[in-house]
Amino acid sequence: MTPQQVDVVTAGFADLAGEATHLAPAARLETADLIVRVTVGAVGTAGAGLAEIGGRAAGLERVATDLPTEAHPTIEVYFSIIDVLDGSFLMPEERVICRLPLTQGSAITAPCLRTRIPRMVDQMDEWAESEAATLESAADFGLSENDRTGLGPADLAAAYYREGVRASRAGFEARALDLMAKAQPLFKETGMRREEGAAWEQLAYLMAATNRDLERAINYAEQAVRIARELSDPVAEARALSLLAGCEARNGNYSRAARIARSAAGQARGNGDTLTEGMSIAILAGVAAVRGNFDQARALQGQALELVRAAGSRRAAARVLLSIAAVTAHDDDRVRSASMAQLDEVRETALESGSLALLRDVTFAMADTCYDTTESELVNAGEVGAIRAIRLSSRLDDKIGEAAGIGLLGAFAVRLGKLDRAFEYLGVAQERALEAGFVEGAIDSFQLLGETVPDQSYGVTLLEAVVGLRAEQQDLRGQVKTLSDLSRLQAGLERNEEAWASYQGAVTAADQYIAQLQENQDREDIRESFTMVLTSLMTTRTELPFLARYLKINRMLPLLNPRWIEG
Amino acid sequence: MIKRQLIALAITVAVLAPTAHGAAAVPAQKRAAREAFLRTAEVVDVQVVSVGITLPQRVELEQGGVRRSAMFKSMDLTDSRQIRIGQEVQEGLRDSWTFEIAAYELDNLLGLNLVPITVVRTIGDNEGALIDWVDDAMPEYGVSPEGFDMAAWEDEVAKVWLFDYLAYNIDRTPENLLLIPGFGVKLIDHSRAFQRFLVPMRPLMRFPRQAIDRLRALSEDEIRRSFSDYLTGEEIDALLIRTRRVLDRVDELLAAKPEDEVLF
Fold first, then answer.
1. CA-based, 20 to 30 A from B145: which of A165, A567, B197, B260?
2. Are B8 and B225 in contact (CB under 8 A)?
């Protein structure tokens, strides 16, 4: 927890009754963890468990209703409050320690925990959700009617801005967005141009970081650039340009993003602003990576990391590390250790800095890494990670993240053979993707439904419908994949002639797609993956859903967060 | 285990002999040299590639000034869950390093050259599969279609479909299907291959002639001997049935279509 978060939580809980009074002094004490202890069975060993975590424990104890059995006479689970607060990933052993002395020795990891005592974990999850809601309520930012009384527009704008920055720092980015949206017009009304520019920057960052409308994020960043130029403020101009480059890149405008990022890096260097320079170079690296230039990407990322570390920003370094991990995973999916080690570091920083957006991104990254494996323990861990990613996305009011997370959960359920559950998840993912305006993501979930449904004849019918939807969208890449998967289902039903016809349809679509690529060598959209189209003709297993892939690409493209610079 | 592998290698060489010509002999020598390197080079570094109980590891090997990477897998697990592919159901799923060796043996027998060189080796206390690292794989994104030939690619598709059917690999994804320069294919991660299903997951309509010739030349005994160290009796039985089905399918198609539409 950051000191700001501690302030917020303790202030919020000061007025709350009951167990909250236990939390407040503990929250004041800690710098990293507040331990929530759940004990089932022999309470006498609990103290040893707490000491093992470093004696940082204080606060709340819950005794679950499950009683010990002969097989498991002692089960202890320790969650740090930050895990509960942020709904974060359960992997690192130092954060979750489960003792099953008769069967497993001293420590096992959360996935195993989930397999062995799912009911207990469900109880913890439920509790965590309600606790997170309580904490959020305690940290309800904003101004009451009383606060607003007597304030002029300038003071009110400044108050909204201040609260917005505070909300963003404490990890409540969605709330921060609302507050900044109130501050900006008031700054404009009162002619506070510099402050208005800062509000535009915050709006652009928050809009993009919470996966809302990227066109609007670009527009906001452009407003910030315009105002910085009017005010002849080179530092703010470089910063806004860097932010604009990040938004453009995430929107698939790679050439434009690279041009702006180069300009931002040059200006920032002239200003002696190593943080902005580093983040701008990190964007250039991301663009190189999505274009498949991994060596160039790695070299640029090395430079970027050095610069942001020299600037003393751990949060910026964490964001660059996340993009390095994403590039590592893309360059070679087999090299998971490097990627996972980087992700662990990012996650630590996300927890310390309280950035939900960063925590969501790293949680998705960890879950994706678990998806690309055949190890069942990791697949179980990934499933838990997907649940956490959904919760984090919900707290950010990030509809795309929610849809992607639910789709990912469905994909994990497919991998774990839980087809009924997968069908349910994918149906919801499809609805959410449509609500978020992501037609392609919705179609992708629909396709995964078709591949998942237990009655494969019905699956064929669904995939035939998906082929039609892809054709309506003029999505040749999608048609190749769907026709290829349809061919696979038909072959499984021993409908060979139909399967061959579907495959030939896929080849025709691939031919057209390649012709289209050759006409437009400067294609801008990384989703147009040539090799993925080719390999989709050969696969025998369901692929990672499109939305999850979309977010994977986003992770290679960092955004400069203005509050890193504001301190 | 090593003795059995030598027998398998001898069979492979015998199968290669009737069709070997100058161009094929060189890769066979290189292959033998690379296999020897993987078996005997000094292990200078081992890194865990993933987390979990049975850890795949990236191994650095060095011999005579040559340094190369390889992947080491020693996992052998059986899951009790029910697996369904198409309309077939299988009780339990075996996930084993021995399938990596079997996949390489099968690739050798068919002469497809799709699977990286793989040998049995003990590293630390674990016996497992040591798989040559594919270090010139093309990236997943951003590759230009320049020089791409769809007809040649369709041949690659047919080869992979044949291999994945015979090996019954239920886990073929874009992540374990690597493209190498010139749009060739390398297949990795076969620890979930050799399941006991029989119905193809892809429509088998075209076949690489050389692989079919080699399949026809193999007796049941030879196949059993080649795989008996790596596959259970049930797994070999399923492989034999699939082999028979492929050959029947080829004959059925040849009776109805011109040869060049069926074989390439």
1. B260
2. yes
Nearest to A183 by CA among A147, A155, A212, A157: A157
In this predicted model, what pLDDT tens digit does every residue of A470-506 receive, in sequence order?
888 888 888 998 999 999 999 999 999 999 999 999 9
Indicate the number of domains in chain B. Answer: 1
Residue of A nearest to B150 (CA): A511
CB-closest option in B50, B85, B137 to A336: B50
CB contact under 8 A, A292 and B81: no
What is the reported pLDDT for B55? 61
Q: What is the pLDDT of residues B33-60, one digit of tens each?
A: 999 999 999 999 987 665 444 467 889 9
Question: How many whole angstroms separate alpha carbon A254 and alpha carbon A260?
Answer: 10
Q: Which residue in chain A has the smallest CA separation from B81?
A: A417
Give which of A534, A554, A556 to mutate to test B binding, by max B Cβ within 10 Å: A534
Distance CA B161, CA B205 (A): 10
Nearest to A442 by CA among A476, A415, A478, A480: A478
The DSSP secondary-structure symbol of A102 reads: T
CB of A60 less than 8 A from some CB of B:
no
The nearest alpha carbon in chain A to B136 belongs to: A332
Residues in chain A: 567
Structural domain containing residue B131 = 2-261
Which residues neighbour A378 within 8 Å (Cβ) at sequence distance 6 or greater?
A111, A369, A370, B50, B51, B52
Which residue from B47, B144, B203 is facing A500, i.e. has the nearest CB?
Answer: B203
Q: Could you say which residues from 17 to 76 on chain B have a Cβ atom under 8 Å away from some Cβ of chain A?
A: 47-54, 56, 58, 71, 75
